[in-house]
Design brief:
The chain has a seven-stranded mixed beta sheet with strand order 1-3-4-2-5-6-7, sandwiched between helices. It has about 200 residues and is of the alpha/beta class. The chain is built from five helices and seven strands, in the order ββαββαβαβαβα. Strand 6, helix 4 and strand 7 form a beta-alpha-beta unit. The protein binds guanosine-5'-triphosphate (GTP) and magnesium ion.
Length: about 200
């Protein structure tokens, strides 16, 4: 994918603030600190488009990124961050759910998990939701640069088992730092966007 334009188009906390449903959207869900914002930056070759942080809980709003005026990447608030109040957690949960349950132009929800750790119960709930709504079920296993290549297979297997994924090819190791598998992930996204476009016409 040649990136001509990547721009923060809108920041929203409720559906009144979302941009129009005129472009397809691919959304990224996952635990706080898993690397969602870093993933978006690396995919569009920008260091600081999506704000990242070493501290969990950086992205607290829904951020819509317009890519090439063709589609959007949607950065969702991370879940599972222990250091926030219950009220705050409920608020983020609501923000995520309202988006996922109401968006007609949403063509894929991609789950990001850390390649080093077994997915959590919340990841499993998220992934089951993704399957229920008939999305492809792509999982990006982030921070792949933090383990040796020899460990990929075993860690991918743990992720596969925990999330009950049938097709191992749906899980892609990824490193925002080293851009590992960037082309492969783009190819997957392009396939989805092309398929949706064909179905629409
Ligand atoms: P929230 O906004 O809190 O939900 O977090 P997030 O999922 O957007 O995570 P973010 O992209 O802010 O990354 C969190 C931390 O992990 C930052 O310190 C990043 O530099 C680091 N990080 C993200 N991806 C990678 C990666 O592929 N490799 C390495 N080594 N570090 C990464
Ligand atoms: Mg973030």
């Amino acid at each position: 994918m040649k990136i001509i334009k990547a721009e923060l188009e809108r920041i929203a906390v409720n559906k009144k603030q979302y941009p129009e449903e005129d472009l397809f959207e691919i959304a990224f869900a996952g635990r706080s600190n898993v690397g969602k914002s870093s993933f978006i930056n690396s995919m569009v070759n920008r260091n600081n488009l999506a704000r990242t942080s070493g501290k969990p809980g950086k992205t607290r709003t829904i951020n819509f990124y317009n890519i090439n005026e063709q589609f959007r990447f949607v950065d969702l608030p991370g879940y599972g961050y222990a250091q926030v109040s219950k009220t705050e957690k409920d608020k983020w949960g609501y923000i995520i759910e309202e988006y996922l349950n109401n968006r007609k132009n949403l063509v894929e929800v991609v789950l990001l998990v850390d390649i080093r750790h077994e997915p959590t119960e919340q990841d499993l709930i998220m992934y089951n939701w993704i399957k229920t709504f008939d999305f492809t079920g792509i999982v990006i296993a982030t921070k792949a640069d933090k383990i040796s290549k020899g460990k990929y297979q075993a860690n991918i297997k743990d992720i596969k088992n925990k999330l009950k994924i049938k097709d191992t090819n749906l899980i892609m190791p990824y490193s925002s730092l080293k851009k590992t598998n960037k082309d492969m992930v783009w190819q997957r996204f392009e396939e989805i966007l092309i398929k949706e476009k064909e179905q629409q016409s």
